[in-house]
Design goal:
This protein has three helices and seven strands; from the N terminus they run ββββαβββαα. By secondary structure, it is an alpha+beta fold. The chain has a single domain, classed as Alpha-Beta Complex (Nucleoside Triphosphate Pyrophosphohydrolase), CATH 3.90.79. It has a four-stranded mixed sheet, with helices on both faces. A three-stranded antiparallel sheet has the order 3-2-7.
């Protein structure tokens, strides 16, 4: 029995702490490819459901829906040739939807061994240089800008 082709619609979930440490995971195969949580939509599930399901599958964390921030941003990019076989014939691009999950503290993820070989928490600047995809890098930088701006506004209002 063959698996149905993956949909070219996915969620990228950047998991981070308030002090902007970001969880990154290395893909299996000794490839040195690091990333945040990512995965394809299944059926007609809402994208927030996709995001929460992928967080649980890839890290073991069951997050409350209220913790998930939908950035309402998408990126469209070419699917790497090595992964095109997972999709229907002729599919060459994916549309990725950005989400983030801010946690009060780091945790030790329970990795899906068929997907990830290692995980670590890094300061956002280092995480942004470690991840292999430009969409993941840009997402981490965007989240850092947003959280730094909020932190600065909070500090100014309490002065």
């Amino acid at each position: 029995m063959s698996l149905a082709p993956k949909q070219p619609v996915s969620a990228l979930v950047v998991i981070h702490t308030a002090d902007l440490h970001v969880l990154v995971m290395e893909r299996v195969g000794g490839s040195g490819l690091w990333q945040s949580v990512t995965g394809s939509r299944e059926g007609d599930e809402p994208l927030a459901t996709t995001a929460l399901r992928e967080v649980a599958e890839e890290t073991g964390l069951t997050a409350a829906p209220a913790m998930l921030l939908d950035w309402k941003l998408t990126n469209r990019f070419p699917i790497l040739p090595r992964w095109r076989g997972r999709y229907a014939a002729g599919v060459t691009h994916n549309t990725e939807h950005l989400f983030s999950l801010c946690l009060p503290a780091t945790f030790t993820p329970v990795l899906a061994p068929e997907e990830h070989a290692a995980a670590c928490w890094l300061p956002w600047q280092e995480a942004a240089t470690r991840v292999f995809s430009w969409t993941n890098r840009d997402a981490i930088r965007l989240i850092a800008r947003r959280f730094n701006a909020v932190g600065q506004a909070t500090q100014q209002s309490s002065s």
